[in-house]
Design goal:
Blueprint: H1 17-20, E1 23-27, E2 33-38, H2 39-45, E3 50-58, E4 63-68, E5 77-78, E6 81-84, H3 91-103, E7 109-120, E8 123-135, E9 146-152, H4 154-163, H5 170-177
């Protein structure tokens, strides 16, 4: 005789979406999730977790760089989308969610470039970088989250990088050196 499947009322994956979206999967040294914790604790205790970055290209192969709305004085040009992967989410699902939230894009081809360990805001994370291309629609961004945006080709980007490398989030310069941005 088979025993009935037990369910646990305190299992975070069984919680409703609003509660689950406040929990982050803590990663082990291999980047695999092993524990769920509230986001505020993860950031306060600087625990490893998964994040995503999205590189968005237009039909001319120019990449989008943005300045996010920030209350701090140090505002850098960065990839258009960054997001924390919440409990039960896939990295690619987070990438699509962030594109929709910041740029109202809900239909685009996304492919994974790489996943690597990365030091982000003094926390070691597992960062997955995605490429979304080609963007063919009318470009618009959410002014509540994005302060400024520009599409740049390889020559423009290298000129800006030579002029002031400090104006970019370090992951952008690293991705450029790895030749992931303009291939």
């Amino acid at each position: 005789m088979k025993k009935p499947l037990l369910t646990f009322s305190d299992c975070p994956y069984c919680l409703d979406e609003n509660i689950r979206n406040t929990l982050i999967e803590i990663s082990d040294n291999n980047g695999s999730p092993f524990l769920l914790m509230p986001e505020r604790i993860v950031k306060k205790k600087k625990m490893g977790h998964r994040i995503i970055f999205v590189v968005l290209k237009d039909k001319k192969k120019k990449i989008l760089l943005v300045k996010k709305q920030s209350e701090t004085n140090k505002v850098l040009w960065e990839f258009p989308c960054y997001g924390v992967v919440y409990a039960g989410e896939s990295a690619i699902g987070t990438a699509y969610k962030e594109l929709k939230k910041h740029f109202y894009i809900d239909s685009i081809t996304i492919k994974e470039i790489t996943t690597l360990p990365y030091l982000h805001n003094d926390i070691y994370v597992s960062a997955t970088i995605f490429l979304a291309e080609p963007f063919l629609g009318t470009f618009q961004y959410n002014p509540e989250t994005i302060a400024d945006a520009m599409f740049v080709d390889k020559e423009e980007f290298n000129g800006l990088l030579n002029f002031d490398p400090e104006m970019f989030d370090p992951i952008i310069t690293w991705a450029n050196r790895a030749n992931w941005l303009y291939k």
